[in-house]
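Input record, target 12 of the design panel.
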C-alpha cells in the first residue's frame, strides 16, 4: 500500500522538512524553492493507496491551488519521483518512487555534495546474467 507522509505548508528548521531534505540543504534554499518543495510533499499526500491520479484531482484532495500543484509537480519530476502522462482531462501523475534521504559526501576536492536516495515502488528489472 502506498501512503506517503504529508506535511503542513508551514515548515521551519525545527520541524520535519519536505522530501527528507536535511537542515543544511533546506537553509540554503530560496523561500520560493522551499514553497515548491513543500507543495511537492503535500502533493504526494494526495495519492493515498493510489499510484496514478489526475493532477487536478490530486491538487483538490490536498487543498493546493493549481499553481502550487504545478510547482510541486516540477520538483517531483525533477527528482524522478513521478511520471507525468497526458490524460483525457489533464495530466495524469504516477508515483514511481518515494523520497528516502539525502546523503552528504565530501569529494576528493573537498567540495560537499549531496546524493539523493529514493525508494522505487517497482522493483528494477535485472537480467539474470547481471546478478552475482
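The sequence produced for target 12 reads:
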Amino acid at each position: 500500500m502506498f501512503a506517503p507522509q504529508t506535511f503542513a505548508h508551514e515548515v521551519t528548521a525545527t520541524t520535519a522538512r519536505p522530501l527528507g531534505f536535511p537542515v543544511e540543504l533546506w537553509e540554503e534554499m530560496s523561500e520560493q524553492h522551499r514553497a515548491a518543495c513543500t507543495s511537492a510533499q503535500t502533493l504526494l499526500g494526495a495519492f493515498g493507496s493510489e499510484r496514478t491520479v489526475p493532477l487536478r484531482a490530486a491538487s483538490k484532495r490536498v487543498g493546493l491551488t493549481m499553481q502550487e500543484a504545478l510547482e510541486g509537480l516540477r520538483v517531483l519530476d525533477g527528482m524522478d519521483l513521478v511520471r507525468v502522462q497526458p490524460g483525457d482531462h489533464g495530466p495524469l501523475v504516477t508515483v514511481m518512487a518515494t523520497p528516502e534521504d539525502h546523503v552528504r559526501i565530501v569529494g576528493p576536492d573537498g567540495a560537499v555534495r549531496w546524493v539523493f536516495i529514493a525508494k522505487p515502488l517497482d522493483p528494477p528489472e535485472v537480467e539474470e546474467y547481471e546478478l552475482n
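The longest helix spans residues 31-44.
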